[in-house]
């Protein structure tokens, strides 16, 4: 079944003027057909909510630099067209964009929380949905920029920036060929796996990590949950990364359970010999499970990621 396509344009030349209008009116409840929402260039200042009842949505822009979804909520100040009973409160409810509908795709879109530095938790996007994919997107903010809360997600060719815990949550996510930028001293990841039985974790594969000048001021991550699991593989790390690499969140007991791994990374911030003793370099056999799409798409009988890639639609189509 072919996808249905609608257009959002602020100047009134499309089917809708705002992204939320397209979600509310163009996507039927419990839809079984993919809806492509083409978003024309512009800065769209409005919180966006994709509810659990609306799956199979694609947001497609032309260039992420030109198509920006932005809002300025913080954990202590939430203004949203939905009630807090629907979207939640605190960090959970403050996302500029909140995605709870499964099988969501975004391409060539910027997701921004425009709150200034020092505003505390200020999420650009929260993803609480399974089988979601992001291609050539940007995620802009300071603290808690990208909340990969639940489900399985794939991010490719994306740019993510922030300072404190700016990629966090307890989903199973593969970030491939992404650019991670540390705007100031802090922590890149805060993964919250709570037990060794959970299959969640974040894998950064062939990524690039940069910083705003200076040396040794950012950690690769800290465990928000005691079994937090993060892998950096074949990733360039510039001098912004602290040589110790990882932080225990001021809890020595986390050192016994956190799973923080690196594999064949390089660059001035990748000095394995200086890392904390409770993080380690994987050997080839251990790394294999993290280097393939099977980490987030483990069922060969029901693959989802290849289908997402096939669904990428040129904006001019």
From TrEMBL:
<dbReference type="InterPro" id="IPR011050">
    <property type="entry name" value="Pectin_lyase_fold/virulence"/>
</dbReference>
<dbReference type="Pfam" id="PF01095">
    <property type="entry name" value="Pectinesterase"/>
</dbReference>
<keyword id="KW-0964">Secreted</keyword>
<dbReference type="GO" id="GO:0045490">
    <property type="term" value="P:pectin catabolic process"/>
</dbReference>
<dbReference type="GO" id="GO:0030599">
    <property type="term" value="F:pectinesterase activity"/>
</dbReference>
<keyword id="KW-0378">Hydrolase</keyword>
<protein>
    <recommendedName>
        <fullName>Pectinesterase</fullName>
        <ecNumber>3.1.1.11</ecNumber>
    </recommendedName>
</protein>
<dbReference type="GO" id="GO:0042545">
    <property type="term" value="P:cell wall modification"/>
</dbReference>
<keyword id="KW-0063">Aspartyl esterase</keyword>
<feature type="active site">
    <location>
        <position position="165"/>
    </location>
</feature>
<keyword id="KW-0134">Cell wall</keyword>
<dbReference type="InterPro" id="IPR033131">
    <property type="entry name" value="Pectinesterase_Asp_AS"/>
</dbReference>
<dbReference type="InterPro" id="IPR000070">
    <property type="entry name" value="Pectinesterase_cat"/>
</dbReference>
<dbReference type="InterPro" id="IPR012334">
    <property type="entry name" value="Pectin_lyas_fold"/>
</dbReference>
<comment type="pathway">
    <text>Glycan metabolism; pectin degradation; 2-dehydro-3-deoxy-D-gluconate from pectin: step 1/5.</text>
</comment>
<feature type="domain" description="Pectinesterase catalytic">
    <location>
        <begin position="6"/>
        <end position="297"/>
    </location>
</feature>
<comment type="similarity">
    <text>Belongs to the pectinesterase family.</text>
</comment>
């Amino acid at each position: 079944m072919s996808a249905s396509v609608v257009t959002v344009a602020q100047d009134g030349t499309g089917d809708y003027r705002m992204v939320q209008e397209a979600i509310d009116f163009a996507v039927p409840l419990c839809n079984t057909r993919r809806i492509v929402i083409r978003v024309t260039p512009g800065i769209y200042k409005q919180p966006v909510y994709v509810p659990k009842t609306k799956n199979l949505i694609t947001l497609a822009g032309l260039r992420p630099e030109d198509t920006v979804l932005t809002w300025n909520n913080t954990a202590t100040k939430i203004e949203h067209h939905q009630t807090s009973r629907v979207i939640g409160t605190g960090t959970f409810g403050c996302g500029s964009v909140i995605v709870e509908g499964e099988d969501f795709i975004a391409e060539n879109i910027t997701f921004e929380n425009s709150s200034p530095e020092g505003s505390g938790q200020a999420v650009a996007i929260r993803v609480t949905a399974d089988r979601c994919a992001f291609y050539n997107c940007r995620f802009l903010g300071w603290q808690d920029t990208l909340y990969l809360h639940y489900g399985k997600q794939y991010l490719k060719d994306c740019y993510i920036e922030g300072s404190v815990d700016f990629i966090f949550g307890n989903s199973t996510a593969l970030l491939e060929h992404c650019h991670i930028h540390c705007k100031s001293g802090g922590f890149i990841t805060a993964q919250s796996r709570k037990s060794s039985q959970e299959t969640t974790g974040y894998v950064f594969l062939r990524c690039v990590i940069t910083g705003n000048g200076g040396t040794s001021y950012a950690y690769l991550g800290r465990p928000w949950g005691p079994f937090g699991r993060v892998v950096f593989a074949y990733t360039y790390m510039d001098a912004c990364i602290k040589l110790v690499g990882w932080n225990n969140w001021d809890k020595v007991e986390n050192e016994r359970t956190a799973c923080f791994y690196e594999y064949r990374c390089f660059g001035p911030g990748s000095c394995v010999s200086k890392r904390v003793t409770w993080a380690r370099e994987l050997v080839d056999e251990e790394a294999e499970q993290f280097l393939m799409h099977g980490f987030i798409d483990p069922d060969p009988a029901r693959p989802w990621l290849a289908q997402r890639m096939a669904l990428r639609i040129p904006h001019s189509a």
